[in-house]
Amino acid sequence: MAHSTNENPVEWPARAVVTAGMPYGNKPLHFGHVGGVFVPADAFARFLRDRIGKDNVRFVSGTDCFGSPINEGYRKLVEAGEFDGSISDYVMRNHERQANTLRSYGISLSIYDGSGIGHAGEVHQHVSEAFIEKLHKNGFLRKESTLQFYDTEAQTFLNGRQVVGHCPVQGCKSEHAYADECDLGHQYDPIDLIAPKSSVTGTVPEMRPVENWYFDLPAFSEFLKKHVEELKADPTIRDVVPQTIEEFLAPPVVYVKNEAEEAYRAIAADLPKHVFRPAEKGKQSFELEFSSIEDRDAARPLLAQANIRFRTGKTLVPFRITGNIEWGVKAPVVEGVEGLTVWCWPESLWAPISFTMAVNDELGLPRSSWQEWWCSDDAEVFQFIGQDNLYFYGVAQPAMWEALKPGNFFGGKESPALRQTTLIANHHLLLGNKKASSSGAVKPPSADELLDYYTPEQLRAHFLALGLDQKSVGFKPKPFDPDESKRTDPRVADPALKEGTLLTNVFNRLARSCFYEAQKNFEGMMPLCSISEEVVVRAQKALHTYDGLMRKVELHTVMSLMDEFIRYSNKYWTDGIREAELSGDADARRQVLADSFYLLRVCTLLMHPIVPFGCEKICMQMNFDADEFFSWNYDFEGMGELCGAAELDEGAHRVRELPPRFDFFEKHKSQIKKK
∠ CA 364-365-370 to the nearest 5 degrees? Predict the structure, then answer.
């Protein structure tokens, strides 16, 4: 059972998949990859293993091996003479660096392969073909001839990242926009990109027609509207998820500057049927709302011919499935169209399914067993993402999952349908007060660089406390402060060490005190007796509150809860042992130690997902099997059940001897003052 409490129990699935996105295979991981996605996902996956059993959890991710950022990064290095291997070698080099970084932070993935690496890559190719063929069979793929950028000087079509310009979406100020997507996640037609320039030659590219497959996303407008209402009614879903999805459900709108109203009036009758809305007070543009994407697109050349500049708004547009760059997952031949590859975004949406299959293959399970994780009513998929990617995971993915019905992409109509996933979207993890990106003006520190100044557990605890589920938050590590006077002043505290101090001071003190007291006065034994009612009530309340907070994935509130509970536990020991010493009451001393070991056990269980290394040291020192110690399948009314002791009043459990001045949670060597 879980823990005994009169409060309503929290419901958890029997099996769970946790995903953590897919970093591009063109660079090492920076602090945002780790702190904004991987650490939260890992803490949640570790909790689920403790909560529902480690065999019932799959934590999957991998390197995104394909896509234009990789092509472009590889091209630049080769041209600069800094790399002489194949593009596959380039991706593998970056993949291995990423995997090493994740291991350094204790990211406990079931698999970290890649969309084009080894067995997982083979599975992913198979899944991609099946997925696309099923979408086509169900009538939701359409072949379109669209315009793509072509560099006449280099005599080549340009991939998405080889074209740069300004985002055309109304209200977006991004100047880091690519062919059909800006760095803030907005999607648009390439023809709408403002001031396009080829990054290959620096020239202005022209548009030439190419043929590709598109998913009919606008056909799922009504489904997505109902889906958003369901998300709004779910208390475990963060508000940013339905709010962002809803932005894309607006009708097709064109925004035109107020000074062009006279020119618009002159051609208004020639435009497809639309609604004119004058500019609202304080706004610089009026709106033209069309009934369909086709009508909006038909109006664009007419507006351009009249020299009327305009911007488009967010709306549902056909979602591109294929492209014509050579480095990519091979698209199946459909209706005789050959030589296409799958655009990296759609295939990255179903890649976690491929990774789940690959894990199950390694475990010797039937290939069809993936359905127990992605389709069953008693399973749930938790996807940790950045808010910039909500268009893909919150709009395109749910619609594609729905488009596969009846059944899924394998098997016939009788196969179970994919369940919609639970999206856990984090806001931006800023560097200081600015958004840092590898392609922007503010360069982020790599995740590896941070380990030159902090331990992994100090960083894990700090990242989880930042509250990214609520808003964008600044990460302000003192060694990277641009103000040198603050960076070098020993009187200035390091904001990134606030939670680390809880570990290295308070939690350490509680653990050491219990072990040293057992060694000094109880022959190395942990007393087993009934735990004081006050302590049990306080601990069980913390367990239940923690369980509920984890269901909502409110990790920063979990950290606040644990700060309070660890300090309470340490104070209980300090006050209790002082009173026992003053009174000379040996029984009271025994009771305080038993209570404190119990509190230490609960603190360690609850902190295990957050700071696993130190907690596993405590478990080992308490002389318990880790699988048993970190399981929630106890009543948590005392230590007897865990120890298997029948007669509590006479029992005792031997703990391991703790060396002098031992630290379960260490400071980084750079933080230790030299004598």
Answer: 140
pLDDT for 411 equals 79
DSSP one-letter code for 659: P
Query: Quick check: 641 and 635 in contact, CB under 8 A?
Result: yes
For position 647, what pLDDT does the model report?
45
Helix (H, G, I), strand (E, B) or coil at 31: helix
**457: number of CA atoms within 13 Å, CB side?**
21
- Residue 63's beta-bridge partner residues? 114
The phi and psi torsions of 474 (rounded to 5 degrees) equal -85, 130
pLDDT-derived band at 674 (thresholds 50, 70, 90) equals: low
One-letter amino acid of 557:
T
Q: How far apart are CA 29 and CA 23, in angstroms?
A: 8
Q: Do 178 and 199 touch, CB atoms closer than 8 A?
A: no
- The answer to whether the CB of 15 falls within 8 A of the CB of 376 is yes
Concatenate the DSSP letters of all residues of 508-563 into one string. Answer: HHHHHHHHHHHHHHSTTEEE--PPPHHHHHHHHHHHHHHHHHHHTT-HHHHHHHHH
Q: Would you state the structure tokens that stand for residue 19, as one six-digit string?
A: 């995903």
- What are residue 274's DSSP bridge partners? 290
d(CA 311, CA 351): 34
SS3 195: strand
Please confirm whether the linkage preceding 406 is cis (ω < 30° from 0): yes
Q: Distances from the Cα of 270 to the Cαs of 299, 305, 449, in angstroms?
A: 9, 12, 59
The contacts of residue 227 (CB under 8 Å, 6+ apart) are 245, 398, 420
CA distance 626 to 615: 10
Q: For residues 269-305, b (16+ Cβ closer than 10 Å) or e, as one string?
A: eebeebeeeeeeeeeebbbbbbeebebbbebbeebee
Q: At a CB cut-off of 8 Å and minimum separation 6, what does 294 contact?
A: none
- Is the pTM here over 0.90, yes or no? yes
Per-state percent for the chain, helix, strand, coil, to nearest 5: 45, 15, 35
Per-residue pLDDT tens over the stretch 81-93: 999 999 999 999 9
Q: Give per-residue pLDDT as tens, 115-153.
A: 999 999 999 999 999 999 999 999 999 999 888 888 898
Tokens (6 digits) for 80: 């600069």
Query: Are the C-beta atoms of 475 and 496 separated by less than 8 Å?
Result: yes
Copy the structure tokens of residue 61.
């991710």
Q: What is the rounded average pLDDT of the residues 337-349? A: 94
Question: Per the structure block, which two tokens stand in for 132?
Answer: 């696309």
Average pLDDT over residues 539-551: 98
Rounded Cα distance between 275 and 457, Å, is 57
Q: Specify the higher pLDDT residue, 401 or 211.
A: 401
The whole-angstrom separation of Cα 164 and Cα 477 is 32
Helix (H) or strand (E) holding 640: helix 640-643
